Amino acid sequence: MQTTTAQAAYPIGTPGKPWDEAEIAAWRARQVKQRDYAQDVLSAINALRDTFDVTSYGALDYAAEHYPLFAVRTRSWDDALPTMLVTGGVHGYETSGVHGALQFLREHGGDYQGRANLLVVPCVSPWAYERIHRWNPDAIDPNRNFREGSASGEAAALVALLAPLRGRVLMHIDLHETTDTDESEFRPALAARDGKVYEPGEVPDGFYLVDDTENLQPAFQQAVIEAVAKVTHIAPPDAKGEIIGSAQIAPGVIAYSLRQLGLCAGITQARYTTTTEVYPDSPRATPQQCNDAQVAAVRAAIDYALAHG
Predict the structure, then answer these.
(1) Side by side, which strands form the sheet with 253-256?
(2) Which pLDDT value is given to residue 90?
(3) Band of the pLDDT at 9, cuts 50, 70, 90?
(4) Angle at the Cα of 195 (from 188 to 20), degrees rounded to 5?
(5) Are strands 272-278 and 253-256 parallel, antiparallel or unpaired?
(6) Burial class of 259 by CB neighbour count within 10 A (0 to 12, 13 to 18, 19+)
(7) pLDDT tens digit string along 175-189?
(8) Are 167 and 269 in contact (CB under 8 A)?
(9) What are the distances in angstroms from CA 296 to CA 85, 302, 308?
(10) Angstrom distance (rounded) from CA 240 to CA 111
(11) pLDDT band at residue 223 under the 50/70/90 scheme
(12) Which domains does the chain have, with CATH numbers?
């Protein structure tokens, strides 16, 4: 495919020219609500109120739509205990991140009573969750904007929630997916939005992790990979030894500069950080298996952090 043809194939924008407000509005008008945040997520969070503290950390208002934001915390929070942070749904279309976080709380949240403080934010981006999309309604990717003064309301709200805990979180795991639509929709849209050439990539078949180039923790990442490998398959590198364009530094592990890129896992400067990437479109994985993989990753991450401090 020719690069100019690839970009022109996206239905919005002019090749070589970044989107203006009219084009963002045209893109937004194409986004259709496909599922319900209140029904799917808020109801599941409310069901946890008997055993956890559920706290509001803000709300997002987009046109006539109102989205309250909630975090789930250990009820008997103890500042003397290590704090473990789990975030999901930074990208709304990455379904197992949301439902894996909720499943972890239901099935295993009580396992850490008296051993750790848990703080879980199951769905950072509710508008995008409903539309099965990566961006917010302003065509902004929250996961490049986790910094002070963020233009993303989703990112700004989470940064504010976590500001008092900066330097006090031992482990932060951010739950994501890499899907076939990354190549069929989201990366072409990104190129069109920014007026750049879309260069096709390869979607890895399997689970992988993203470490922090400024704080590599290979043994921690390996512990998570080993736990997830019991649930689903780990992504192999491509012919270049890469996963989504980055060098594999260990089986199923690549690394990004988390804080420089404004990624969610870099917010708190935790000692142990990782971003999970589940592949839900694999013929070898079911939706439940994807949720189970996220749960296995969370448990392994917390257990490793507790064992190694």
Answers:
(1) 52-62, 65-74, 117-121, 83-88, 169-177, 272-278, 208-212, 253-256
(2) 98
(3) confident
(4) 105
(5) unpaired
(6) middle
(7) 999 999 999 999 999
(8) yes
(9) 15, 10, 18
(10) 41
(11) very high
(12) 3-308 (3.40.630.10)
Tokens of residue 162, six digits? 């976590």
Residue position matching structure tokens 């590198």: 237
3-class secondary structure, 143: helix
At position 164, the amino acid (one-letter code) is P
41's CB contacts (< 8 A; 6+ apart) are 89, 98, 102, 122, 123, 126, 129
Which residue is listed with tokens 């990782």?
Answer: 274
Locate tokens 């994985």: which residue?
285
Q: Is the full-model pTM beyond 0.85?
A: yes
Calculated CA dihedral for residues 264, 145, 90, 222, nearest 10 degrees: -30
Length of the chain: 309
How many CB atoms within 10 Å of residue 5?
10
Collapse the DSSP code of 45 into the 3-class scheme (helix H, G, I; strand E, B; otherwise coil) and give the result.
Answer: helix
Q: What share of the chain is helix, strand, coil (3-state, %, to 5)?
A: 40, 20, 40
Could you identify the residue written with the tokens 């649930």?
Answer: 231
